[in-house]
Amino acid sequence: MNERALLEALRARDPNALTILFERHADSIYRLALRLLNDEAMADGVVQDTFIAVIEHIDGFEGRATISTWLYRVAYNNAMGRLRKARPHLDLDEATAGYCIPEAFIDWETIPERTLSSTEVKAELDRAINALNPNLRAVFLLRDVEELSTEATAHVLGISEGAVKVRLHRARLALREQLAGYFMENIEEL
What is the pLDDT of residue 105? Predict the structure, then answer.
């Protein structure tokens, strides 16, 4: 079922259309929510709330973006709302974490591919991603993990395409900084 037909079926309240939509997008919505929140129960809640929002607001969907982009937007807003409730008082240092200029770099081309795909390195990468400021983490996950376009990411996050590019650049720099120390210490062991 193409997107236009799916949208019409959703507006007609066809339960099969919701099933199709859920099967196509629930896993990616869950992955995004889990990576943003680091909590499985909260991520499940985001998925549930996202699809409830589809049911409740499908008639208001104008179609200026794809359905998947709309779903990501709803999920992102829900996840960030949950983060704000969990941490209502961010101090300035915490709010600007991850906006630093890296001091250490490593030439990734010198690291063998088998090393980069090891379980230990993947765990370290996950730790580094989770340590990013939530705004940087969201852009990194949407662009580099979920592979959304800059335009779609901007739409999901409600920011300009330029802001997406800046945040993605900062996220990548912060990750390189965090991972450089790890690789410098462990490269011979890996």
Answer: 52
d(CA 48, CA 56): 12
Q: Which domains does the chain have, with CATH numbers?
A: 3-86 (1.10.1740.10), 97-186 (1.10.10.10)
Is the Cβ–Cβ distance between 125 and 33 less than 8 Å?
no
pLDDT tens-place string over residues 98-113: 445 545 555 545 555 5
The model's pTM: 0.69
* Helix (H/G/I), strand (E/B), else coil: 184: helix
Which residues fall within 8 angstroms of residue 32, CB to CB, at 6 or more apart? 72, 75, 76, 79, 141, 142, 146
Q: How far is CA 175 from the centre of its chain?
A: 15
Q: What angle do CA 111, 150, 61 make, to 5 degrees?
A: 140
